[in-house]
Amino acid sequence: EEFRKANPKIFEIKFNSTNKWMCSIHDMEKGFGMDRVMMLKGAPERVIRMCKTICVNGQKVKLTPEWKEKFQNAYESLGGLGERVLGFAYRDMSDQPKNKEYTSKPEPNFPMDDLTFAGLFTLIDPPRIGVPEAVGKCKRGGIKVFMVTGDHPITAEAIAKQVGIIDESEGKSIVIKGDDIRDIMELSEEEQSAKWDFWLSHKQIVFARVSPKHKLIICDNAQKRGEIVAVTGDGVNDAPALSAAHIGVAMGIMGKDVAKEAADMILMDDNFASIVNGVEEGRLIFDNLKKSISYTLTSNIPEIGPFIIYMLLNIPLPLSTVLILCVDLGTDMWPAISLAYEEKESDIMDRPPRNAATDRLVNRRLITFAYFQIGIMQVLAGFFTYLIVLNDYGYTPRILMGLGSDWEDFPVMCTVRGNGAPGSCGYGCADPDFNKLGLGDIEGDRKWCQQGCNIPVYGYGDPFIEHTHDGFRGFGAGGEEATCGRTCAWFYSQGNSTGNTFEDNLFAQYCALQPAGITYGFPSRGKASSTATSKKAPAGAFYWWNGRPQRFPNKNYQSNALAYAQTAYFISIIVAQWSDLLISKTRKLSLFEQGMNNNKMIQGLMFETCLGIFLCYCPGFDTGLGTRPIHGFHWFLGVPWSLLILIYDEVRKSIIRKNPGGWTDRFTYW
Fold this sequence. Notes:
Strand order of the largest sheet: 1-2-3-6-7-4-5
Low-confidence stretches: 440-445
Radius of gyration: 45 Å
Number of strands: 19
Structural class: alpha/beta
Largest sheet: 7 strands, mixed
Mean pLDDT: 90
Shape: rod-shaped
């Protein structure tokens, strides 16, 4: 500090990226042999151009080509060690007037072309700990790291090798100087584009002795190639490049306010490794979002599948809309959220960058995987469980088609095969309209045949109902009126004869006693269903429930059997979603390699299982949600399908790992 005071600075030209040097003029104290001196430091190749002499052992000698060659060898050898090299020079300003006012604009008003070269000075600026590892991660992940620096090309190349940006692979690396960029600016646009394509096609690139404006040019040309570009910077002159890049990253410690405002992200520790950690974290977030979406989408197929089959085949609805809401808003909620807490996969930084134009959160491959692979297995699990449960309650799968739309309203009737199994099934007559009978509400609960007429046993009969002791009359000769609309008026219209002497006698007795204002029989009753796809009960059919023919209807049993089957279908979705959640933990790696370290996921598995148990067995939910306390065995009907999902996905991922780029990878890796 005392030396500075004794030799005050009277003028200064500060360093800038264009000159690449700075100089100052000082009044010197006595004893130095110079009253005033100009001192200059900067890029050695710039400094040496401004010198005509060189100081050797304290003496000025002419700067000959031999000395320039020695300078170049020393410069390159020091730069090759990765050290930053500065050149120093001076000039005796004693020949300048004492009261001269120095200026640098528009040009310096003092000589600057006859300096004396004083020597070289090197600085060691070692890479930060973790930078080589971070660069290695980028390379494995397909991220190209460009080094853009104002250092000499030799120094820049040496440092790039130290941190791993450049390796010894022949033909992969290139060092581009700022002068090269300036030279091609004079070329045509097509020639410039071709030159940039050649440069940027290299995997390992170093830009040396460049200015901040070159950084913007580099960014623009990389973007023209369709690449996603991130730019780091800390100075005011870096702001245009930071703003133009897809992701501008400013330094939080050394960065200027202008650079921070232009950037999209501020690096608080000024450490390149933190950028790579950010890339890794971004990939993890993207992965986990895809996993959560994939898990959620798979349950759509077992939810929509029952309605499609219901409409196409007219079977009893396998899953109610209320239970669909229980899946979407209940059992699936916690597991789907738990995937956000999933740890990163070990290969997350070994994957190439995704194509931003095509590889979105939800793409064709994810839809195909969720809907047409895992979703199909889940819907098969659901229908398998549904059919088994209905079969256990006496309704075999082959009789269900055509019965769906009226299952809740009318009792099913079936013929009986020789082995006691149901044959052909359908629905009989509709409930009678009691107002047409002249009864109104007078009879109260005595509304005959409202839930279906009892089938008479041998020796008994009722000529007005649709059954004989041999079962349903059928919709053959005479049509619906002869079966479901049997009244005294109809009997008279048939000429007092039905072809059955026993029934003719009964008709004659009842109709002769018919009171005034009372109509015996069921006028305009019609068949049970007006739906064209619903089956008509065949002749000789009996009511069918509890796995055997019955002589009286039991619609409660019938509707409860369906409720048990729907509940079992709902449980099968939960069981299948166990495996779906596990396979969603990874996109390519094996589940066993990833492990079960996600406690939120374990809690989610327990939650959906406990919620399913609660909805099935807690009293009161049977009324509100239509659930039933299914047998414990019916919980396990979905387990084989759940295991199939797990095994299928493990095999799929194994094929992808062993054959990258193959058919399985291209069409099923989501």
